[in-house]
Specification:
heterotrimer; A alpha/beta; B alpha+beta; C alpha/beta; A: alpha/beta; seven-stranded mixed β-sheet; three-stranded antiparallel β-sheet; 7 helices; 12 strands; 24% helix; 16% strand; C: alpha/beta; Rossmann fold; 5 helices; 9 strands; 22% strand
Amino acid sequence: MDGTPNAATPETLAGYNFAYLDEQTKRMIRRATLKAVAIPGYQVPFGSREMPLPYGWGTGGIQVTASIIGVEDTLKVIDQGADDTTNAVNIRRFFAKTAGVATTEKTAEASIIQTRHRIPEEPLRADQIIVYQVPQPEPLRFIEPREAETRKMHALSEYGIMHVGLYEEIAHFGRITQGYNYPVQVDDRYIMAPSPIPKFDNPKMDHMPALQLFGAGREKRIYAVPPHTKVKSLDFEDHPFTIESWEQTCALCGSEESYLDEVITDDRGSRLFVCSDSDYCRTRRDAGHEGSGLPVPAEPDTTASEPAGESS
Amino acid sequence: MYVAVKGGDAAIENSQSLLAEERRGDTAVDELDLEQIKQQLSLAVDRVMTEGSLYDEDLAALAIKQARGDIVEAIFLLRAYRTTLPRFGASEPIDTGDMAVRRRISATFKDVPGGQILGPSFDYTHRLLDFTLAANGEPPAPTPVAEAPVDEAMPRVTELLNQEGLIEQESADDDQEVFDLTRESMKFPADREARLQNLARGDEGFLLALGYSTQRGWGRNHPFAGEIRMGEVAVEFTPEELGFPIEIAEITVTECQMVNQFKGSSEVPPQFTRGYGLTFGHCERKAMSMALVDRALRAEELGESIEAPAQDQEFVLAHACNVEASGFVQHLKLPHYVDFQSELVTVRALRKAIRESAANQEDPGMPPAAE
Amino acid sequence: MTAALSLTPTIDIEPGFIDPVRDSQMIFRAVLDVMARPGQIATLPALAERQDRLAPASTMICLALIDHETPLWLDESLMIPGITGYLRFHTGAPLASSPSQASVAVLDGPSTSLTRFKTGSDAYPENGATVIIQVPGLSASGPLTLSGPGVDGEAGFGVEGLPDSFWKEREAVNAGFPRGVDLILCAGDKIAALPRTTRVSLHEVEGDQ
């Protein structure tokens, strides 16, 4: 009956249900996911289960993916934008083993993309779903550690504390220093943690044609942004939201538009800048784009900590 | 040319192959069998079952073996397996008053009906390493059998206080649906049933430290070990089609009832209050720590001021699970270079701004450099 | 096992999904898709049959998504042994004694006022009910205009069998967002969803006033 591995499903890990979770758990997660979609940006509590991968390593995303995935899906898993990082490989292995689904490294070929810390550079389509792994779903948590309090703030749309927090940063540093997990407001209502993607990716969330699902396993929350929904990064009129930019281009594919990783290439601090999105970079190289291939020498630092005499 | 730290199947498989070798150790030494772990490392098995929230000695022994004796890892293995088990329903509440007692002590009375039963305990051992064990010592001499069997009736000490009205009443609302920590996420403020479920699974070391902190004045609640009992209880289940309970198992549990002082209030005369701890198997340290923390977490309900970490339910309950804690602490091993890159960009920009502002102060005639 | 045998239903119960794991997933994904795109109409695959007055789509959604954790409300016309026996057997969902007890409801037409269902609280709005309404027909164009999350700008939408007053009532029920009720509309094997966030406006037909 219900929950028994069935002959019609592809060959998967013996003794375990399709996609690991039992059917009752999947139904619970599915109902939570539907409510998350119906209340964009609101964190729906759910009975998160212990998965065979550790909490903090993507269990929320894995549970969401396990509940939505079907035999006809093609799954892509990325960590830091890349398909070949160990954790991405491991999660892909988990689904290949427990669900027997097709996997891909190509963004365009995937129907479900599970991600940690990036949104692919290639725009996502309406027939795709992106599942974010979320370590801390509560955007207000680092200002107010108590759930009882933050829940009230969300309920009443009382977000003054967040604006004060951001403004204090401006007062102290002259800018908002939050570089990743930069808070957003969804459909002018809920303030939401976009997960630790760099703020470079925040604009991609706004009016995205694909459905965006967020799973936080350890914190037991699921939330969502439906397609074509307004997602605004918090800012102030006199300090508008900006994204990271680089003077360098990708050393491999020459892209001037992608998010770059910095790789140290020698003991003098020379650095190579390369695309964090490995599929995007490969696709560009396959199409004939080429970067310099050269590392950049370390910039001499002349800030306060240097001896006074050497200051330029 | 550029080679990032890339994993791939091969690296993961090799790592796991090395792990398997390390687990086995020297193959000239006999392989541990699960029966040995069950019989001779039984307190490890009990802890893994308690915090793994699954009563199965064989699986717990397997988890301990597979985890190379890393108890927190073994607890994680058992919990992950537990996820895949179907739910048949909820058992009837166990009746620890009806326990086949093997150990029962009270610190509040010199003697109690049913008597003090020391049972198997480290308590009065001298902690001297026993080198006969290292030499594969002979089996221990059999313990002499008591002249009289233990009393059938072993009333709980707290019930004795109850008769005089000296301790708060506790009654369960049988009609109310019981919170289920597995199927629901914690809501704050959490009711006592939810708190107790959370503490029962909670990490022994964490609860031990918190319980200890209450004794040192961080949320002091004047505890006495009213009673600690360990032994076997029946687990009963009522199948829907039968309509009456049938016994489905017998399990070992340890229960601790702390008796704590309470000054009373305008509504309630002074009386003793309770803290409660319960574990699978024989986990006495855990049961006592749990009881101390349970009582500390009742501060709000009893009108006490909340000043110490052990009294703060969000602090305690959100951090008690070692499967959650271990996963999240160790997730810092995962790559974070995208986020770190974002921080690099920010720190460089901040430093550049400081540099430029310093340069402008030195040479006020120069216009500010373009960003 | 004589005790168990005595519980064997006295009426014949039609089969549910043939492959519950796969079929539930397919139906859920279709529901997820329409919930994420209000007004978009999906045709469900024929994985289970109509049960008396319970349309194929509502039958399949119940099979896929409800269980003993979701008290179910059926309107009077659906409270017949053929339907209750089927759903109880295949899903285990308890029947709610009133609409306000239900987390999921199935209505055959606008039989029950939406005001009678749970809308959740500001702190826990997900406790608002999911109400499945069977209607004679759905169309991607019609007198209704939809906007809100999941709708790219505005979209036309038509539902047969729901009076104008229904839309006013829905608006009132969802006025206290985030509290509200989420709707799934079923017409035969077709479904569409209107989560609480969707703004529905009625075209004023010319010369109507």
